[in-house]
Amino acid sequence: MQSLDGESIVVIGAGVGGLSTACYLADAGADVRVIEKNEQLGGRASRLERDGFRFDMGPSWYLMPDVFERFFDHFDRTPSDYYGLTHLDPHYRIFFKDGDEVDVTPDLERTKRVFESYEDGAGEALERYLEKSRENYEVGMEHFVYEDRSKLRDYLDLDVARQARGLSLLGSMQGHVEDYFDHPKLQQIMQYTLVFLGGSPKNTPALYNLMSHVDFNLGVWYPEDGIGGVIDGIAELGRELGVEYETNRPATGVKGREGAFLVETPEGPLRPDLVVSNADYHHTDQELLPDERQGYDADYWESRTYAPSAFLLYLGVEGDVDELAHHTLVLPTDWEEHFEQIFEDPAWPEDPAYYCCVPSETDDDVAPDGHSALFVLVPIAPGLEDTPERREQYRDLVLDDLADHADTDLRDRIVLEERFCIEDFADRYNSYEGTALGLAHTLRQTALFRPPHRAKRVEGLYMVGGDTTPGIGVPMCLISGELTAEAVLEDHG
Is Oxidoreductase tagged as a keyword (predicted)? Predict the structure, then answer.
């Protein structure tokens, strides 16, 4: 990288994007300080620790190991310098609410036989689907994810057109999957990863079939100490590079411009040369900046399509929960109504699709002896009314559903229970309408249609995180940090 010697930079927010950017900028010679509103680093990838139980509060899937290897390799390190990895088998388990149960394992031949049991020819169709997914992944990552093509002119190039020719750029994931599989359960298996992108089969571009390569071919892993262990590793790398961290120090305003910034905090102002914000883009734009410096108006933010929020139950329970795998999905046989109640007619889902994470199936250190740690996540629409009474009702609905459809009755074994929902996302992370992830990956909110890394009306202010490119998810935010650092270096290196 070019040199940023002599530049002082404040990074607002210690989510994955902020931590990543800080490493790249410090490696380039900048004096970097990260300030974080909450009591720990990680942003949405925080930990919850109570009475001997430990939970990843947000992200819990370690996908795209190649992205983490590339990140650490930039600094002449490897992920194994900071944490170990366990390849999960099964990758995940699915309970369909009509009684079917499916394990997706690292053994592709076994998975093909499962597909074939539902539909003649589906095993071969899976092979063809994954080959297309691999092609989209390799071309998409190299030419459209690791490169920040943020302007239309970046696409009006013969080389770009040549690379994009074979990609599934248009159409929806629903239509793309239907080209390969007729059985609705097979379609659901191929589409569940859209949850990681905050979309539905009908509003997510077919390009994101690349997520199936991530899932089936690259595998699903568990990092030592969970995703929190990954955060610890990235933060430790930052310290080795000279990054300073301050928790419990929120930014309350950003004024000035390149070379003369004033970052307001309750503990007093900071006066860096440059600022990178990893706070939610809407919060930075509408709450931290003066009115005359905002890049977008309120109508813009109201018109966006947001990823779901979530209703979360963190549970410490007596005994084992062996019916559940480390990652388990519980799906109604028809999940269209659930997606409609997120994106089209917002309401608390009556027959929810949901996800269970049971890290104690892999890691003995996350729960006391004789106990299990798990959380249940139900995607719901952001902005719904979130009251204690509604949470209590929904808690009972979810636990009843687990007992009925996943052979797991936890109701008389719970020794620890914490809940997290829309109001908590808004309060803890300053997220718009309490969205858990930010801007969804619809066709009109992908690539150059996401907000840019450079603030539109403030020179020297940069944005990083899931709302900008390349988008949602821990690996994408890690890459977002690289792209933001490249923008800073292009302007100031």
Answer: yes
- The CATH class of 305-429 is alpha beta
Q: Where in the chain is the domain with CATH 3.50.50.60?
A: 8-84+224-304+443-492
- Residue 418, burial from CB neighbour count under 10 angstroms (0-12, 13-18, 19+): middle
Using CA atoms, how far residue 148 sits from 471, 475, 482, in Å, is 11, 15, 10
Question: Could you write out the three-class secondary structure of 367-393?
Answer: CCCCEEEEEEEEEECCCCCCCHHHHHH
CA–chain centroid gap for 191, Å, is 16
- pTM of full prediction above 0.85: yes
- Cβ count within 10 A of residue 340: 16
What is the DSSP code (8-state) at residue 97?
T
Average pLDDT over residues 155-159: 48
Cis-peptide into 470, omega within 30 deg = yes
Give the pLDDT of residue 292: 95
Angle at 301 between CA 300 and CA 305, to 5 degrees: 105
- Supply the CATH classification number for the domain 8-84+224-304+443-492: 3.50.50.60
